[in-house]
Write a structure and sequence with these properties.
With about 80 residues, the protein is an all-alpha fold. It has a domain of about 50 residues. It is about 80% helix and about 0% strand. The chain is built from two helices and no strands. The longest helix has about 30 residues. It is elongated and about 60 Å long.
Length: about 80
Amino acid sequence: MRKFFAGVAGFVLGVALGYCLILAGWVLYMNVFDVFDREGAMTMGFAFTFGPIGALVAGIFGAIWFARRAGRKPRDVAP
């Protein structure tokens, strides 16, 4: 049960961070390379297509990573 809840928490955290990182990367790219997006079509494409796809991938990786970390036993500490 502990691994399940850790996986859910990892998925939620991965989705949130993945989406924010993709959009922040797009905004940074637009500012660095002086991209002109008057009507906002490219930004909407990233916000509603690439953002959710990347967030889903990041959420899956986050869930796997958190669940594996929750399943580990603590190491014995030498005195």
